[in-house]
Protein backbone atom coordinates (compact mmCIF):
# COMPACT_ATOMS: atom_id res chain seq x y z
CA UNK A 1 0.00 0.00 0.00
CA UNK A 2 1.21 3.48 -0.86
CA UNK A 3 2.26 5.43 2.24
CA UNK A 4 0.91 8.93 2.84
CA UNK A 5 1.74 9.53 6.50
CA UNK A 6 3.99 7.84 9.10
CA UNK A 7 1.02 6.01 10.68
CA UNK A 8 -0.33 2.83 9.14
CA UNK A 9 -3.88 3.17 10.47
CA UNK A 10 -3.98 6.85 9.50
CA UNK A 11 -2.94 5.87 5.97
CA UNK A 12 -5.57 3.14 6.02
CA UNK A 13 -8.24 5.66 7.16
CA UNK A 14 -7.36 8.06 4.33
CA UNK A 15 -7.45 5.33 1.70
CA UNK A 16 -10.64 3.75 2.97
CA UNK A 17 -12.40 7.12 3.36
CA UNK A 18 -11.30 8.12 -0.11
CA UNK A 19 -12.50 4.76 -1.44
CA UNK A 20 -15.88 5.31 0.27
CA UNK A 21 -16.24 8.72 -1.30
CA UNK A 22 -15.30 7.38 -4.74
CA UNK A 23 -17.88 4.63 -4.32
CA UNK A 24 -20.42 7.28 -3.34
CA UNK A 25 -19.74 9.12 -6.60
CA UNK A 26 -19.79 5.96 -8.75
CA UNK A 27 -22.83 4.34 -7.12
CA UNK A 28 -25.53 6.64 -8.68
CA UNK A 29 -24.25 5.89 -12.18
CA UNK A 30 -24.27 2.15 -11.37
CA UNK A 31 -27.88 2.45 -10.21
CA UNK A 32 -28.79 4.39 -13.37
CA UNK A 33 -27.17 1.59 -15.40
CA UNK A 34 -29.43 -0.88 -13.62
CA UNK A 35 -32.49 0.99 -15.05
CA UNK A 36 -33.44 3.44 -12.34
CA UNK A 37 -34.66 6.75 -13.85
CA UNK A 38 -32.08 9.55 -14.00
CA UNK A 39 -34.33 12.05 -12.28
CA UNK A 40 -34.18 9.85 -9.18
CA UNK A 41 -30.45 9.02 -8.95
CA UNK A 42 -28.53 11.71 -10.81
CA UNK A 43 -29.39 14.38 -8.31
CA UNK A 44 -27.20 16.29 -5.82
CA UNK A 45 -29.09 14.86 -2.88
CA UNK A 46 -28.61 11.24 -4.00
CA UNK A 47 -24.91 11.84 -4.73
CA UNK A 48 -24.51 13.38 -1.26
CA UNK A 49 -26.32 10.46 0.39
CA UNK A 50 -24.16 7.88 -1.43
CA UNK A 51 -20.94 9.69 -0.60
CA UNK A 52 -22.03 9.98 3.05
CA UNK A 53 -22.77 6.26 3.14
CA UNK A 54 -19.37 5.51 1.58
CA UNK A 55 -17.69 7.74 4.16
CA UNK A 56 -19.50 5.96 7.02
CA UNK A 57 -18.56 2.50 5.64
CA UNK A 58 -14.92 3.60 5.42
CA UNK A 59 -15.00 4.93 8.97
CA UNK A 60 -16.60 1.73 10.30
CA UNK A 61 -13.98 -0.34 8.48
CA UNK A 62 -11.26 1.73 10.13
CA UNK A 63 -12.77 1.18 13.58
CA UNK A 64 -13.08 -2.56 12.96
CA UNK A 65 -9.48 -2.77 11.66
CA UNK A 66 -8.14 -0.85 14.65
CA UNK A 67 -10.10 -3.05 17.02
CA UNK A 68 -9.35 -6.44 15.40
CA UNK A 69 -5.88 -5.89 13.94
CA UNK A 70 -4.72 -3.08 16.18
CA UNK A 71 -5.57 -5.03 19.33
CA UNK A 72 -3.42 -7.94 18.18
CA UNK A 73 -0.57 -5.61 17.27
CA UNK A 74 -0.80 -3.86 20.63
CA UNK A 75 -0.60 -7.22 22.41
CA UNK A 76 2.40 -8.18 20.30
CA UNK A 77 4.10 -4.86 21.04
CA UNK A 78 3.40 -5.26 24.75
CA UNK A 79 4.90 -8.73 24.84
CA UNK A 80 7.92 -7.56 22.80
CA UNK A 81 8.54 -4.81 25.37
CA UNK A 82 8.39 -7.44 28.13
CA UNK A 83 10.93 -9.59 26.27
CA UNK A 84 13.13 -6.53 25.71
CA UNK A 85 13.07 -5.78 29.43
CA UNK A 86 14.01 -9.35 30.22
CA UNK A 87 16.86 -9.29 27.72
CA UNK A 88 18.22 -6.18 29.43
CA UNK A 89 17.77 -7.89 32.79
CA UNK A 90 19.60 -10.98 31.50
CA UNK A 91 22.42 -8.83 30.14
CA UNK A 92 22.85 -7.49 33.68
CA UNK A 93 23.17 -11.04 35.01
CA UNK A 94 19.54 -11.81 35.82
CA UNK A 95 17.15 -14.41 34.47
CA UNK A 96 13.87 -14.60 32.54
CA UNK A 97 11.68 -14.66 35.63
CA UNK A 98 9.35 -12.02 34.16
CA UNK A 99 8.80 -13.79 30.86
CA UNK A 100 8.67 -17.53 31.12
CA UNK A 101 7.63 -18.97 27.73
CA UNK A 102 4.17 -19.98 28.91
CA UNK A 103 3.59 -16.45 30.31
CA UNK A 104 4.77 -14.55 27.22
CA UNK A 105 3.20 -16.68 24.48
CA UNK A 106 0.55 -15.08 22.26
CA UNK A 107 -2.52 -17.15 21.44
CA UNK A 108 -2.54 -18.26 17.79
CA UNK A 109 -6.20 -18.08 16.71
CA UNK A 110 -5.94 -17.08 13.05
CA UNK A 111 -4.55 -18.64 9.90
CA UNK A 112 -3.15 -15.54 8.28
CA UNK A 113 -0.29 -13.08 8.61
CA UNK A 114 -1.40 -12.16 12.14
CA UNK A 115 -1.28 -15.84 13.14
CA UNK A 116 2.11 -16.20 11.45
CA UNK A 117 3.39 -13.20 13.41
CA UNK A 118 2.15 -14.69 16.70
CA UNK A 119 3.71 -18.04 15.84
CA UNK A 120 7.04 -16.39 14.97
CA UNK A 121 6.96 -14.43 18.22
CA UNK A 122 6.25 -17.57 20.26
CA UNK A 123 9.14 -19.34 18.53
CA UNK A 124 11.38 -16.39 19.35
CA UNK A 125 10.40 -16.56 23.05
CA UNK A 126 11.10 -20.31 23.06
CA UNK A 127 14.48 -19.79 21.39
CA UNK A 128 15.40 -17.05 23.88
CA UNK A 129 14.37 -19.22 26.83
CA UNK A 130 16.39 -22.14 25.47
CA UNK A 131 19.40 -19.91 24.85
CA UNK A 132 19.14 -18.50 28.35
CA UNK A 133 18.86 -21.98 29.86
CA UNK A 134 21.96 -23.06 27.94
CA UNK A 135 23.87 -19.92 28.95
CA UNK A 136 22.80 -20.30 32.57
CA UNK A 137 23.69 -24.00 32.56
CA UNK A 138 27.11 -23.24 31.09
CA UNK A 139 27.75 -20.44 33.60
CA UNK A 140 26.76 -22.59 36.59
CA UNK A 141 28.66 -25.58 35.22
CA UNK A 142 31.81 -23.52 34.66
CA UNK A 143 31.54 -22.06 38.15
CA UNK A 144 31.24 -25.57 39.58
CA UNK A 145 34.29 -26.81 37.66
CA UNK A 146 36.36 -23.78 38.65
CA UNK A 147 35.68 -24.40 42.34
CA UNK A 148 36.67 -28.10 42.35
CA UNK A 149 40.25 -29.37 42.33
CA UNK A 150 39.50 -32.86 43.63
CA UNK A 151 39.00 -35.23 40.69
CA UNK A 152 36.48 -37.51 42.40
CA UNK A 153 34.31 -34.63 43.61
CA UNK A 154 34.49 -32.83 40.27
CA UNK A 155 33.54 -35.86 38.17
CA UNK A 156 30.68 -36.83 40.49
CA UNK A 157 29.14 -33.36 40.51
CA UNK A 158 29.82 -32.81 36.80
CA UNK A 159 28.01 -36.04 35.91
CA UNK A 160 24.99 -34.98 37.97
CA UNK A 161 24.87 -31.67 36.09
CA UNK A 162 25.30 -33.32 32.69
CA UNK A 163 22.45 -35.75 33.39
CA UNK A 164 20.19 -32.97 34.67
CA UNK A 165 20.76 -30.71 31.66
CA UNK A 166 20.27 -33.51 29.09
CA UNK A 167 17.49 -35.29 31.04
CA UNK A 168 19.49 -38.51 30.91
CA UNK A 169 18.43 -41.33 33.23
CA UNK A 170 21.86 -42.94 33.62
CA UNK A 171 25.42 -42.00 32.86
CA UNK A 172 29.12 -42.32 33.54
CA UNK A 173 32.20 -40.14 33.27
CA UNK A 174 35.52 -41.74 32.32
CA UNK A 175 38.85 -39.93 32.60
CA UNK A 176 42.12 -40.74 30.83
CA UNK A 177 45.24 -40.29 32.92
CA UNK A 178 48.74 -41.62 32.18
CA UNK A 179 47.41 -43.78 29.35
CA UNK A 180 44.70 -45.42 31.46
CA UNK A 181 40.96 -44.82 30.96
CA UNK A 182 39.14 -45.12 34.29
CA UNK A 183 35.49 -44.71 35.28
CA UNK A 184 35.48 -41.89 37.84
CA UNK A 185 31.72 -41.41 38.31
CA UNK A 186 28.61 -43.37 37.34
CA UNK A 187 24.89 -43.48 38.02
CA UNK A 188 22.29 -46.02 36.95
CA UNK A 189 24.63 -48.15 34.81
CA UNK A 190 25.60 -51.77 35.35
CA UNK A 191 28.85 -53.55 34.41
CA UNK A 192 30.84 -50.36 34.96
CA UNK A 193 34.16 -52.21 34.62
CA UNK A 194 33.31 -53.09 31.01
CA UNK A 195 32.85 -49.45 30.01
CA UNK A 196 36.59 -48.87 29.80
CA UNK A 197 36.91 -51.52 27.07
CA UNK A 198 33.60 -50.87 25.32
CA UNK A 199 33.73 -50.62 21.51
CA UNK A 200 31.66 -47.41 21.37
CA UNK A 201 33.85 -45.77 24.00
CA UNK A 202 36.96 -46.78 22.05
CA UNK A 203 35.48 -45.52 18.77
CA UNK A 204 34.64 -42.16 20.34
CA UNK A 205 38.18 -41.81 21.69
CA UNK A 206 39.83 -42.76 18.40
CA UNK A 207 37.65 -40.62 16.17
CA UNK A 208 37.03 -37.74 18.54
CA UNK A 209 33.41 -37.85 17.34
CA UNK A 210 30.16 -38.32 19.24
CA UNK A 211 28.65 -41.80 19.07
CA UNK A 212 24.83 -41.88 19.33
CA UNK A 213 23.41 -45.40 19.48
CA UNK A 214 19.66 -45.91 19.06
CA UNK A 215 18.48 -49.18 20.50
CA UNK A 216 15.39 -50.96 19.15
CA UNK A 217 13.10 -52.63 21.68
CA UNK A 218 14.65 -55.73 23.20
CA UNK A 219 18.24 -54.76 22.35
CA UNK A 220 20.90 -53.96 24.95
CA UNK A 221 24.29 -52.39 24.37
CA UNK A 222 27.19 -54.53 25.55
CA UNK A 223 29.08 -52.87 28.39
CA UNK A 224 26.54 -50.10 28.85
CA UNK A 225 23.76 -52.14 30.42
CA UNK A 226 21.54 -49.84 32.40
CA UNK A 227 19.16 -50.51 35.25
CA UNK A 228 16.40 -49.67 32.73
CA UNK A 229 15.98 -50.33 29.01
CA UNK A 230 17.51 -47.31 27.23
CA UNK A 231 16.31 -46.17 23.83
CA UNK A 232 19.42 -44.09 23.17
CA UNK A 233 22.97 -44.21 24.49
CA UNK A 234 25.30 -41.29 23.82
CA UNK A 235 29.08 -41.60 24.02
CA UNK A 236 30.80 -38.21 23.78
CA UNK A 237 34.59 -37.77 23.87
CA UNK A 238 35.98 -34.93 25.99
CA UNK A 239 38.80 -33.28 24.05
CA UNK A 240 41.33 -30.72 25.24
CA UNK A 241 43.35 -29.18 22.40
CA UNK A 242 42.41 -32.15 20.16
CA UNK A 243 43.68 -34.63 22.78
CA UNK A 244 41.10 -36.98 24.37
CA UNK A 245 41.11 -36.73 28.16
CA UNK A 246 37.77 -38.33 28.96
CA UNK A 247 34.47 -39.79 27.78
CA UNK A 248 30.87 -38.95 28.70
CA UNK A 249 28.37 -41.82 28.57
CA UNK A 250 24.67 -40.96 28.89
CA UNK A 251 21.61 -43.18 28.49
CA UNK A 252 17.95 -42.24 28.26
CA UNK A 253 14.64 -44.01 27.95
CA UNK A 254 13.55 -41.30 25.49
CA UNK A 255 15.37 -39.75 22.57
CA UNK A 256 17.84 -36.96 23.28
CA UNK A 257 16.41 -33.67 22.03
CA UNK A 258 18.30 -31.26 19.79
CA UNK A 259 18.43 -28.72 22.60
CA UNK A 260 19.92 -31.30 24.97
CA UNK A 261 22.59 -32.30 22.43
CA UNK A 262 23.47 -28.67 21.75
CA UNK A 263 23.68 -27.93 25.48
CA UNK A 264 25.85 -30.99 26.01
CA UNK A 265 28.28 -29.69 23.39
CA UNK A 266 28.65 -26.43 25.32
CA UNK A 267 29.07 -28.18 28.66
CA UNK A 268 31.58 -30.61 27.20
CA UNK A 269 33.91 -27.75 26.29
CA UNK A 270 33.77 -26.42 29.85
CA UNK A 271 34.29 -29.93 31.20
CA UNK A 272 37.39 -30.39 29.06
CA UNK A 273 38.95 -27.25 30.53
CA UNK A 274 37.95 -28.21 34.08
CA UNK A 275 39.25 -31.76 33.76
CA UNK A 276 42.54 -30.59 32.30
CA UNK A 277 42.98 -28.15 35.20
CA UNK A 278 42.31 -30.86 37.78
CA UNK A 279 44.61 -33.37 36.09
CA UNK A 280 47.35 -30.75 35.85
CA UNK A 281 46.81 -29.90 39.52
CA UNK A 282 47.06 -33.59 40.45
CA UNK A 283 50.30 -33.92 38.50
CA UNK A 284 51.75 -30.89 40.24
CA UNK A 285 50.61 -32.22 43.60
CA UNK A 286 52.28 -35.53 42.92
CA UNK A 287 55.46 -33.80 41.80
CA UNK A 288 55.43 -31.69 44.94
CA UNK A 289 54.67 -34.67 47.18
CA UNK A 290 56.97 -37.32 45.71
CA UNK A 291 60.67 -37.82 45.94
CA UNK A 292 61.89 -37.61 42.31
CA UNK A 293 64.39 -40.47 42.67
CA UNK A 294 62.34 -43.13 44.45
CA UNK A 295 58.77 -42.07 43.62
CA UNK A 296 57.67 -42.22 47.27
CA UNK A 297 56.51 -39.38 49.54
CA UNK A 298 59.10 -36.79 50.43
CA UNK A 299 59.54 -35.80 54.07
CA UNK A 300 57.18 -32.83 54.00
CA UNK A 301 54.18 -34.68 52.60
CA UNK A 302 55.12 -37.88 54.40
CA UNK A 303 54.90 -36.15 57.76
CA UNK A 304 51.56 -34.66 56.73
CA UNK A 305 50.32 -38.20 56.04
CA UNK A 306 51.69 -39.32 59.41
CA UNK A 307 49.69 -36.59 61.14
CA UNK A 308 46.55 -37.71 59.30
CA UNK A 309 47.09 -41.35 60.26
CA UNK A 310 47.87 -40.40 63.87
CA UNK A 311 44.61 -38.40 64.12
CA UNK A 312 42.67 -41.30 62.59
CA UNK A 313 44.25 -43.77 65.02
CA UNK A 314 43.26 -41.56 67.97
CA UNK A 315 39.68 -41.23 66.69
CA UNK A 316 39.30 -44.96 66.00
CA UNK A 317 41.24 -46.03 69.09
CA UNK A 318 43.47 -48.21 66.90
CA UNK A 319 47.26 -48.66 66.91
CA UNK A 320 49.68 -46.92 64.59
CA UNK A 321 53.19 -48.16 63.98
CA UNK A 322 56.25 -46.64 62.33
CA UNK A 323 59.54 -48.13 61.15
CA UNK A 324 62.56 -45.84 60.75
CA UNK A 325 65.20 -47.37 58.44
CA UNK A 326 68.77 -46.23 57.84
CA UNK A 327 71.23 -47.81 55.39
CA UNK A 328 74.45 -48.89 57.11
CA UNK A 329 77.62 -47.12 55.94
CA UNK A 330 75.86 -45.68 52.91
CA UNK A 331 78.44 -42.88 52.57
CA UNK A 332 81.11 -45.46 51.78
CA UNK A 333 78.93 -46.81 48.94
CA UNK A 334 78.76 -43.35 47.39
CA UNK A 335 82.48 -42.76 47.93
CA UNK A 336 83.48 -46.16 46.50
CA UNK A 337 81.05 -46.66 43.62
CA UNK A 338 79.72 -43.17 42.93
CA UNK A 339 76.40 -41.47 43.50
CA UNK A 340 74.70 -43.14 40.51
CA UNK A 341 75.24 -46.55 42.09
CA UNK A 342 74.17 -45.10 45.41
CA UNK A 343 70.92 -43.96 43.81
CA UNK A 344 70.35 -47.47 42.45
CA UNK A 345 70.81 -48.86 45.95
CA UNK A 346 68.15 -46.47 47.29
CA UNK A 347 65.73 -47.44 44.52
CA UNK A 348 66.44 -51.12 45.23
CA UNK A 349 65.64 -50.63 48.92
CA UNK A 350 62.34 -48.90 48.08
CA UNK A 351 61.36 -51.78 45.78
CA UNK A 352 62.04 -54.32 48.55
CA UNK A 353 60.17 -52.20 51.11
CA UNK A 354 57.08 -52.04 48.91
CA UNK A 355 57.15 -55.82 48.56
CA UNK A 356 56.87 -56.34 52.34
CA UNK A 357 54.42 -53.54 53.10
CA UNK A 358 50.65 -53.82 52.94
CA UNK A 359 48.29 -51.83 50.75
CA UNK A 360 47.52 -48.69 52.71
CA UNK A 361 50.96 -48.51 54.32
CA UNK A 362 52.95 -45.38 53.47
CA UNK A 363 56.67 -45.20 52.67
CA UNK A 364 58.50 -41.88 53.08
CA UNK A 365 62.00 -40.77 52.18
CA UNK A 366 62.81 -39.26 55.55
CA UNK A 367 66.37 -38.14 54.77
CA UNK A 368 69.23 -38.94 52.41
CA UNK A 369 69.40 -42.69 53.19
CA UNK A 370 66.72 -42.74 55.89
CA UNK A 371 63.21 -44.04 55.21
CA UNK A 372 60.07 -43.98 57.32
CA UNK A 373 57.35 -46.59 56.97
CA UNK A 374 53.92 -45.63 58.37
CA UNK A 375 51.89 -48.74 59.24
CA UNK A 376 48.26 -48.07 60.24
CA UNK A 377 46.70 -50.55 62.69
CA UNK A 378 50.12 -52.16 63.31
CA UNK A 379 51.31 -53.27 66.76
CA UNK A 380 54.95 -53.28 67.80
CA UNK A 381 55.18 -56.97 66.83
CA UNK A 382 53.76 -56.22 63.38
CA UNK A 383 56.30 -53.46 62.88
CA UNK A 384 59.19 -55.68 63.98
CA UNK A 385 58.06 -58.38 61.55
CA UNK A 386 57.96 -55.95 58.61
CA UNK A 387 61.34 -54.47 59.52
CA UNK A 388 62.96 -57.91 59.91
CA UNK A 389 61.64 -59.10 56.56
CA UNK A 390 63.01 -55.98 54.86
CA UNK A 391 66.37 -56.30 56.66
CA UNK A 392 66.70 -59.93 55.64
CA UNK A 393 65.71 -59.31 52.00
CA UNK A 394 68.21 -56.47 51.68
CA UNK A 395 71.08 -58.39 53.27
CA UNK A 396 70.46 -61.38 50.97
CA UNK A 397 70.27 -59.31 47.77
CA UNK A 398 72.78 -57.20 45.85
CA UNK A 399 72.90 -54.37 43.36
CA UNK A 400 75.05 -55.11 40.31
CA UNK A 401 77.39 -52.62 38.70
CA UNK A 402 79.10 -54.28 35.79
CA UNK A 403 80.80 -57.32 37.28
CA UNK A 404 80.56 -55.98 40.81
CA UNK A 405 77.83 -56.97 43.25
CA UNK A 406 77.25 -54.38 45.92
CA UNK A 407 75.70 -55.57 49.15
CA UNK A 408 74.35 -53.28 51.83
CA UNK A 409 72.54 -53.71 55.12
CA UNK A 410 70.15 -51.63 57.15
CA UNK A 411 69.35 -50.82 60.74
CA UNK A 412 65.78 -50.15 61.84
CA UNK A 413 63.94 -48.80 64.84
CA UNK A 414 60.25 -49.45 65.35
CA UNK A 415 57.59 -47.91 67.57
CA UNK A 416 53.83 -48.36 67.93
CA UNK A 417 51.14 -46.57 69.87
CA UNK A 418 49.88 -49.98 71.01
CA UNK A 419 52.80 -50.25 73.51
CA UNK A 420 53.76 -46.60 73.93
CA UNK A 421 52.02 -43.57 75.36
CA UNK A 422 52.77 -40.76 72.94
CA UNK A 423 51.05 -37.41 72.53
CA UNK A 424 51.96 -36.59 68.94
CA UNK A 425 53.25 -38.14 65.72
CA UNK A 426 56.61 -36.45 66.33
CA UNK A 427 56.88 -38.26 69.67
CA UNK A 428 56.19 -41.57 67.89
CA UNK A 429 58.95 -40.93 65.33
CA UNK A 430 61.29 -39.84 68.15
CA UNK A 431 60.73 -43.19 69.87
CA UNK A 432 61.53 -45.03 66.62
CA UNK A 433 64.63 -42.87 66.18
CA UNK A 434 65.83 -43.79 69.67
CA UNK A 435 65.34 -47.48 68.83
CA UNK A 436 67.27 -46.98 65.55
CA UNK A 437 70.13 -45.42 67.52
CA UNK A 438 70.20 -48.50 69.76
CA UNK A 439 70.37 -50.77 66.68
CA UNK A 440 73.35 -48.84 65.35
CA UNK A 441 75.09 -48.89 68.72
CA UNK A 442 74.57 -52.65 68.93
CA UNK A 443 76.47 -53.27 65.70
CA UNK A 444 74.08 -52.37 62.86
CA UNK A 445 72.15 -54.73 60.54
CA UNK A 446 69.67 -55.03 63.42
CA UNK A 447 66.07 -54.17 64.30
CA UNK A 448 65.23 -52.67 67.67
CA UNK A 449 61.84 -51.77 69.12
CA UNK A 450 60.97 -48.93 71.47
From TrEMBL:
Cite the entry's keywords alphabetically. Answer: Membrane, Transmembrane, Transmembrane helix
What are the residue boundaries of the HAMP domain, all occurrences included?
106-133
Residue ranges of domain GGDEF in the record: 318-450
Which Gene3D superfamilies does the annotation name? 3.30.450.40, 3.30.70.270
User: May I have one GO cellular component term?
Assistant: plasma membrane
Q: Which GO terms describe its molecular function?
A: diguanylate cyclase activity
The answer to whether the entry has keyword Hydrolase is no
**What is the protein name stated in its UniProt record?**
diguanylate cyclase
> What Pfam family is a match, any one?
GGDEF
The UniProt record lists the EC number as 2.7.7.65
Q: Which residues cross the membrane?
A: 12-33, 45-64
Q: Which residues belong to the signal peptide in this entry?
A: none
For this protein, the record's CDD domains field holds: GGDEF (cd01949), HAMP (cd06225)
Q: What class of enzyme is it?
A: transferase
Amino acid sequence: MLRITQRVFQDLAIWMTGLGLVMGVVFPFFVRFMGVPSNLVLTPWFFAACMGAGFMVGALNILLAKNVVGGRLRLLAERIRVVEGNLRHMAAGGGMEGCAPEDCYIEIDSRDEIGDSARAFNNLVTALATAHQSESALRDFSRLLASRLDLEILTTEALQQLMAHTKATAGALLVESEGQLTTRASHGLKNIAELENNDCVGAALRSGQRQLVRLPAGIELNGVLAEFRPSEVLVDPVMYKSVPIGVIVLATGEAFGEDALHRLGLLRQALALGLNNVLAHDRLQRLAALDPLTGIYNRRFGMARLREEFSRAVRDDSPLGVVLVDLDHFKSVNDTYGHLVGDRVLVHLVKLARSVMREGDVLVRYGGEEFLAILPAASRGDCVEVAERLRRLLSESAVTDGEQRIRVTLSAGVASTSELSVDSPNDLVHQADQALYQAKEAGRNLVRAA
